[in-house]
Design goal:
Blueprint (H helix, E strand, L loop, with lengths): L5 H21 L3 H11 L5 H6 L10 H38 L17 H15 L3 E2 L5 E3 H4 L25 E3 L5 H10 L4 E10 L11 E11 L4 H16 L5 E8 L2 E10 L16 E10 L1 H7 L7 E8 H9 L12 H6 L1
Parallel strand pairs: 1-4
Antiparallel strand pairs: 2-3, 4-5, 5-9, 6-7, 7-8, 8-9
Helix pairs in contact: 1-4, 5-10, 7-9
The structure holds zinc ion.
């Protein structure tokens, strides 16, 4: 290798300027320009490599080479700066285009949600009874056998227990409540000896074979009024008022004798069928009547278990299934629809 002369280095610098210029034109991303910078102008880049030979030139030849090298460096630095600006601009433009809104596109229709039919029915029931001075009282879903049966006048072995197919837990004596009636005892024990007017809504559980009219879980709303001089007339007045508000004014009502262990006397309340107005249809099984609830005067044993003296206090209680009410009100023929999440039902009612 011959002696390095000024001309060689100047040629190398010129070659570098051309190579770098061509390579920069190909760099289309910020990342590529960084790599380009490292290759040509970086600490281990080609320019540094060329200038390493500067020391072998005679002293008087060095200034010219240094001047040219500096010009090349400045030119390339300006070029890469310009290139990077252009790339950044293009990237911003691309983002702006991607995010721009076409105001001529038609809008998307919004479907409004609404409350589930069970929730709406419950709220209708709450509104009617709270207007009559009843408070809403919460009681537990998991109950003891004592609250669910014994304190409601059904000691162990009582045949009336067969009216409810019960879910038992693995803890002896602990069950899923079969009716909201167990809440009556909780309410009475909390308020006795003050008068009570409460409704007790909530889920109840039955070990049932599920079919069109039976579910293993459904809602009940229990009602309880306890005080002095409460009579069967009060029961009838409250429930007829309820039926007229729930199903529309002018409903016919009838009370049939029935049996519940925790009320005496006990009745079932029917109203004339809201779908056929008493003429007879499949929903009322061609009787013209719909059974809407069970009720009665609170049994003296139950009053006593709740902390009231039955010789001074009396009361009435009633219980209704909110799904059954919705079935009747909206003409739905299968209770399983309530929990099937079928949009057709949810849209219809
Ligand atoms: Zn009917």
């Amino acid at each position: 290798m011959g002696k390095i002369v000024q001309q060689d280095i100047l040629e190398q610098l010129e070659q570098l300027r051309q190579d770098a210029g061509a390579a920069l034109a190909q760099a289309n991303t910020t990342e590529a320009t960084r790599e380009w910078y490292a290759e040509y102008l970086g600490r281990k880049g080609r320019l540094t490599g060329i200038l390493r030979n500067l020391g072998s030139l005679p002293v008087e030849e060095r200034p010219l080479v240094g001047k040219v090298a500096n010009e090349v460096k400045v030119a390339l630095e300006n070029a890469v700066q310009e290139r990077q600006n252009a790339i950044a601009q293009a990237e911003m433009e691309a983002v702006r285009r991607a995010e721009s809104v076409d105001v001529t596109l038609p809008g998307r229709t919004q479907t409004l949600g609404k409350l589930h039919i069970t929730t709406r029915t419950l709220r209708d029931i709450y509104a009617i009874f709270t207007a009559m001075g009843f408070q809403i009282y919460d009681s537990p879903d998991v109950e003891t056998d004592e609250y669910n049966f014994q304190l409601l006048n059904m000691p162990p072995g009582h045949p009336a227990r067969d009216m409810w197919d019960t879910f038992y837990t693995t803890t002896p004596g602990l069950i899923l409540r079969t009716h909201t009636s167990s809440g009556q005892i909780h309410a009475m024990r909390e308020y006795a000896p003050d008068p009570i007017r409460v409704i007790l809504p909530g889920k109840v559980y039955r070990y049932e074979a599920v079919d069109a009219s039976h579910e293993s879980m459904f809602y009940q709303v229990e009602g309880l009024a306890v005080g002095k001089h409460i009579t069967f007339c009060d029961l009838k007045g409250v429930l007829i008022n309820f039926a007229n508000q729930m199903y529309g004014e002018g409903r016919q009502a009838r009370f049939r004798k029935s049996y519940f262990p925790f009320t005496e006397p006990s009745v079932e309340m029917d109203i004339d069928c809201v779908l056929c107005n008493g003429k007879g249809c499949p929903v009322c099984k061609y009787t013209g009547w719909l059974e809407i609830l069970g009720a009665g005067m609170v049994h003296p044993v139950v009053l006593e278990n709740g902390g009231y003296d039955p010789s001074r206090f009396s009361g009435f209680a009633f219980g209704m299934g909110s799904e059954r009410m919705a079935l009747q009100k909206y003409g739905i023929d299968d209770i399983r629809y309530f929990y099937a999440n079928d949009m057709r039902l949810l849209e219809r009612v």
